[in-house]
Amino acid sequence: MEIRYSQQLRKIAGYIDTIVKGFNVNDPRSHALIISALNEYANTLDFWAKNAAGRIITDVALRDEKTWLVYAQDLSRGVKDQIRNTDIGAVYQQLLNEQIRLIKSLPLDAAQRISDLSTRALIEGSRASEISSLIMATGHVTKSRANTIARTEVSRAQSIFTQARAENLGSEGYIWRDSDDEDVRKRHAWLNGKFIYWNEPPIVDVKSGRRAHAGCDINCRCYSEPVIPDDY
Q1: Which of 30, 37, 144, 214 would be a feasible disulfide site paired with 222, CB 3.0-4.6 Å?
Q2: pLDDT tens-digit map of 175-187
Q3: Is 212 helix (H, G, I), strand (E, B) or coil?
Q4: What contacts 216, CB < 8 A, 6 or more positions away?
Protein backbone atom coordinates (compact mmCIF):
# COMPACT_ATOMS: atom_id res chain seq x y z
CA MET A 1 0.00 0.00 0.00
CA GLU A 2 2.85 2.34 0.82
CA ILE A 3 4.43 1.67 -2.59
CA ARG A 4 1.11 2.25 -4.36
CA TYR A 5 0.47 5.49 -2.50
CA SER A 6 4.02 6.68 -3.13
CA GLN A 7 3.61 6.00 -6.84
CA GLN A 8 0.44 8.09 -6.90
CA LEU A 9 2.02 11.00 -5.04
CA ARG A 10 5.14 10.92 -7.19
CA LYS A 11 2.89 11.59 -10.19
CA ILE A 12 2.12 14.96 -8.63
CA ALA A 13 5.83 15.59 -8.14
CA GLY A 14 6.29 14.81 -11.83
CA TYR A 15 3.63 17.34 -12.85
CA ILE A 16 5.22 19.93 -10.57
CA ASP A 17 8.59 19.28 -12.22
CA THR A 18 6.98 19.72 -15.65
CA ILE A 19 5.34 23.00 -14.61
CA VAL A 20 8.57 24.43 -13.21
CA LYS A 21 10.69 23.41 -16.18
CA GLY A 22 8.10 24.81 -18.57
CA PHE A 23 9.28 28.30 -17.66
CA ASN A 24 12.60 30.08 -18.07
CA VAL A 25 13.71 29.95 -14.45
CA ASN A 26 16.74 32.09 -15.27
CA ASP A 27 14.37 35.02 -15.76
CA PRO A 28 13.23 36.32 -12.33
CA ARG A 29 10.05 37.63 -13.95
CA SER A 30 8.94 34.02 -14.53
CA HIS A 31 8.98 33.13 -10.83
CA ALA A 32 5.60 34.73 -10.14
CA LEU A 33 4.14 32.86 -13.11
CA ILE A 34 5.46 29.53 -11.82
CA ILE A 35 4.00 30.22 -8.39
CA SER A 36 0.63 31.09 -9.91
CA ALA A 37 0.66 27.93 -12.05
CA LEU A 38 1.42 25.73 -9.04
CA ASN A 39 -1.33 27.32 -6.96
CA GLU A 40 -3.78 26.77 -9.80
CA TYR A 41 -2.68 23.15 -10.06
CA ALA A 42 -3.38 22.66 -6.35
CA ASN A 43 -6.91 23.94 -6.89
CA THR A 44 -7.58 21.22 -9.49
CA LEU A 45 -6.55 18.35 -7.22
CA ASP A 46 -9.64 17.92 -5.00
CA PHE A 47 -11.36 15.19 -7.01
CA TRP A 48 -8.15 13.30 -7.82
CA ALA A 49 -6.92 13.52 -4.24
CA LYS A 50 -10.24 12.27 -2.85
CA ASN A 51 -10.17 9.22 -5.11
CA ALA A 52 -6.48 8.38 -4.70
CA ALA A 53 -6.54 8.78 -0.92
CA GLY A 54 -9.93 7.08 -0.61
CA ARG A 55 -8.70 3.91 -2.28
CA ILE A 56 -5.67 3.69 0.00
CA ILE A 57 -7.58 4.42 3.21
CA THR A 58 -10.30 1.90 2.31
CA ASP A 59 -7.63 -0.72 1.66
CA VAL A 60 -5.96 0.02 5.00
CA ALA A 61 -9.29 -0.22 6.82
CA LEU A 62 -10.15 -3.59 5.23
CA ARG A 63 -6.70 -5.02 5.95
CA ASP A 64 -6.90 -3.86 9.55
CA GLU A 65 -10.29 -5.55 9.98
CA LYS A 66 -8.94 -8.75 8.42
CA THR A 67 -5.96 -8.73 10.80
CA TRP A 68 -8.24 -8.27 13.79
CA LEU A 69 -10.46 -11.18 12.71
CA VAL A 70 -7.43 -13.46 12.29
CA TYR A 71 -6.35 -12.76 15.88
CA ALA A 72 -9.95 -13.06 17.10
CA GLN A 73 -10.44 -16.63 15.85
CA ASP A 74 -10.48 -17.99 19.39
CA LEU A 75 -12.87 -15.33 20.67
CA SER A 76 -16.66 -15.36 20.70
CA ARG A 77 -18.80 -14.68 17.66
CA GLY A 78 -20.15 -11.60 19.42
CA VAL A 79 -16.64 -10.13 19.65
CA LYS A 80 -16.03 -10.82 15.96
CA ASP A 81 -19.28 -9.06 15.12
CA GLN A 82 -18.24 -6.16 17.32
CA ILE A 83 -14.94 -5.91 15.44
CA ARG A 84 -16.75 -5.95 12.08
CA ASN A 85 -19.32 -3.40 13.21
CA THR A 86 -16.95 -0.87 14.75
CA ASP A 87 -18.02 2.57 13.57
CA ILE A 88 -14.97 3.84 11.72
CA GLY A 89 -16.88 6.37 9.62
CA ALA A 90 -15.65 9.42 11.52
CA VAL A 91 -12.08 8.08 11.58
CA TYR A 92 -12.23 7.36 7.85
CA GLN A 93 -13.49 10.87 7.03
CA GLN A 94 -10.88 12.51 9.22
CA LEU A 95 -8.09 10.53 7.54
CA LEU A 96 -9.49 11.28 4.09
CA ASN A 97 -9.65 15.02 4.77
CA GLU A 98 -6.09 14.99 6.08
CA GLN A 99 -4.83 13.15 3.01
CA ILE A 100 -6.56 15.57 0.64
CA ARG A 101 -4.89 18.44 2.51
CA LEU A 102 -1.47 16.75 2.31
CA ILE A 103 -1.82 15.97 -1.40
CA LYS A 104 -2.79 19.56 -2.19
CA SER A 105 0.09 20.78 -0.03
CA LEU A 106 2.62 19.31 -2.48
CA PRO A 107 2.16 21.97 -5.18
CA LEU A 108 1.40 24.64 -2.57
CA ASP A 109 4.64 23.95 -0.72
CA ALA A 110 6.50 23.89 -4.03
CA ALA A 111 5.06 27.33 -4.80
CA GLN A 112 6.09 28.59 -1.37
CA ARG A 113 9.59 27.20 -1.87
CA ILE A 114 10.00 29.10 -5.13
CA SER A 115 8.61 32.25 -3.52
CA ASP A 116 11.14 31.95 -0.69
CA LEU A 117 14.00 31.37 -3.12
CA SER A 118 12.97 34.35 -5.24
CA THR A 119 12.78 36.56 -2.14
CA ARG A 120 16.16 35.28 -0.97
CA ALA A 121 17.68 36.25 -4.32
CA LEU A 122 16.39 39.81 -3.91
CA ILE A 123 17.39 40.22 -0.26
CA GLU A 124 20.75 38.44 -0.27
CA GLY A 125 21.72 39.18 -3.83
CA SER A 126 22.38 35.50 -4.45
CA ARG A 127 23.74 34.48 -7.81
CA ALA A 128 21.01 33.93 -10.40
CA SER A 129 22.51 30.58 -11.44
CA GLU A 130 22.40 29.31 -7.85
CA ILE A 131 18.74 30.28 -7.38
CA SER A 132 17.81 28.89 -10.79
CA SER A 133 19.34 25.49 -10.00
CA LEU A 134 17.50 25.38 -6.67
CA ILE A 135 14.20 26.21 -8.36
CA MET A 136 14.85 23.54 -11.00
CA ALA A 137 15.28 21.01 -8.17
CA THR A 138 11.76 21.68 -6.84
CA GLY A 139 10.35 18.56 -8.50
CA HIS A 140 13.03 16.38 -6.88
CA VAL A 141 12.40 17.93 -3.47
CA THR A 142 8.66 17.32 -3.89
CA LYS A 143 9.29 13.68 -4.87
CA SER A 144 11.23 13.12 -1.66
CA ARG A 145 8.40 14.64 0.39
CA ALA A 146 5.85 12.54 -1.48
CA ASN A 147 7.71 9.38 -0.44
CA THR A 148 7.79 10.55 3.18
CA ILE A 149 4.06 11.28 3.17
CA ALA A 150 3.24 7.84 1.72
CA ARG A 151 5.47 6.05 4.22
CA THR A 152 4.16 7.97 7.21
CA GLU A 153 0.47 8.20 6.36
CA VAL A 154 -0.17 4.54 5.49
CA SER A 155 1.37 3.52 8.82
CA ARG A 156 -0.52 6.24 10.67
CA ALA A 157 -3.85 5.23 9.12
CA GLN A 158 -3.22 1.62 10.14
CA SER A 159 -2.51 2.72 13.72
CA ILE A 160 -5.60 4.93 13.91
CA PHE A 161 -7.94 2.19 12.64
CA THR A 162 -6.36 -0.26 15.09
CA GLN A 163 -6.97 2.20 17.93
CA ALA A 164 -10.62 2.68 16.93
CA ARG A 165 -11.32 -1.06 16.96
CA ALA A 166 -9.35 -1.62 20.16
CA GLU A 167 -11.17 1.13 22.04
CA ASN A 168 -14.48 -0.30 20.83
CA LEU A 169 -13.53 -3.49 22.68
CA GLY A 170 -12.76 -1.53 25.85
CA SER A 171 -9.01 -1.27 25.40
CA GLU A 172 -7.32 1.50 27.36
CA GLY A 173 -3.95 1.19 25.70
CA TYR A 174 -1.35 -0.90 23.93
CA ILE A 175 2.19 -2.24 24.06
CA TRP A 176 4.63 -0.30 21.87
CA ARG A 177 6.49 -2.61 19.48
CA ASP A 178 9.39 -1.44 17.32
CA SER A 179 10.62 -3.01 14.07
CA ASP A 180 13.59 -4.60 15.88
CA ASP A 181 16.36 -3.55 13.50
CA GLU A 182 19.32 -1.16 13.45
CA ASP A 183 17.27 1.69 11.95
CA VAL A 184 14.99 2.04 14.99
CA ARG A 185 15.35 5.47 16.57
CA LYS A 186 16.71 5.47 20.14
CA ARG A 187 13.56 6.94 21.63
CA HIS A 188 11.38 4.43 19.79
CA ALA A 189 13.63 1.59 20.99
CA TRP A 190 13.28 2.93 24.53
CA LEU A 191 9.47 2.86 24.17
CA ASN A 192 9.52 -0.75 22.92
CA GLY A 193 7.62 -3.03 25.30
CA LYS A 194 6.10 -0.20 27.31
CA PHE A 195 2.37 0.16 27.94
CA ILE A 196 0.91 3.31 26.37
CA TYR A 197 -2.54 4.75 27.06
CA TRP A 198 -4.52 5.59 23.92
CA ASN A 199 -5.44 8.99 25.36
CA GLU A 200 -1.82 9.86 26.17
CA PRO A 201 0.57 9.56 23.20
CA PRO A 202 4.18 9.42 24.41
CA ILE A 203 7.00 11.82 23.62
CA VAL A 204 8.77 10.41 20.56
CA ASP A 205 11.29 13.22 20.19
CA VAL A 206 12.74 14.62 23.39
CA LYS A 207 14.32 17.66 21.75
CA SER A 208 11.11 18.96 20.17
CA GLY A 209 8.70 17.37 22.66
CA ARG A 210 6.77 15.83 19.76
CA ARG A 211 4.21 13.22 20.80
CA ALA A 212 2.82 10.37 18.70
CA HIS A 213 1.53 6.84 19.02
CA ALA A 214 3.40 3.88 17.53
CA GLY A 215 3.29 4.05 13.75
CA CYS A 216 2.15 7.69 13.74
CA ASP A 217 5.50 9.47 13.92
CA ILE A 218 7.32 10.62 10.78
CA ASN A 219 8.72 7.58 8.93
CA CYS A 220 7.84 5.40 11.93
CA ARG A 221 7.76 1.62 11.38
CA CYS A 222 6.69 0.74 14.92
CA TYR A 223 3.23 -0.65 15.67
CA SER A 224 0.77 -0.96 18.52
CA GLU A 225 -0.15 -4.25 20.17
CA PRO A 226 -3.58 -3.53 21.73
CA VAL A 227 -4.24 -4.74 25.25
CA ILE A 228 -7.81 -6.06 25.37
CA PRO A 229 -9.69 -6.47 28.71
CA ASP A 230 -9.72 -10.01 30.12
CA ASP A 231 -13.52 -10.13 29.74
CA TYR A 232 -12.96 -10.86 26.04
Answers
A1: 214
A2: 999 988 888 999 9
A3: coil
A4: 155, 156, 159, 160, 201
Pairwise pLDDT comparison (46 vs 130), residue with the higher score? 46
Contacts of 215 (CB under 8 A, 6+ apart): 155, 156, 158, 159, 221, 222, 223, 224
In order of 60, 109, 111, 215, the CA distances from 115 in angstroms are 36, 10, 6, 33
Cβ atoms of 143 and 122 within 8 Å: the answer is no
- Short-list 63, 66, 88, 91, CA closest to 4: 63
pTM, entire model: 0.88
Domain boundary assignment for the chain: 2-169, 172-232
Question: Residue 75: its pLDDT value, please?
Answer: 67
Share of the chain above pLDDT 70, in %: 97
Task: For residues 55 and 104, give the distance between their C-alpha atoms in angstroms, rounded to a whole number.
Answer: 17
Give Rg (Cα) of the chain.
21
Helix (H) / strand (E) element for 177: namely strand 173-177
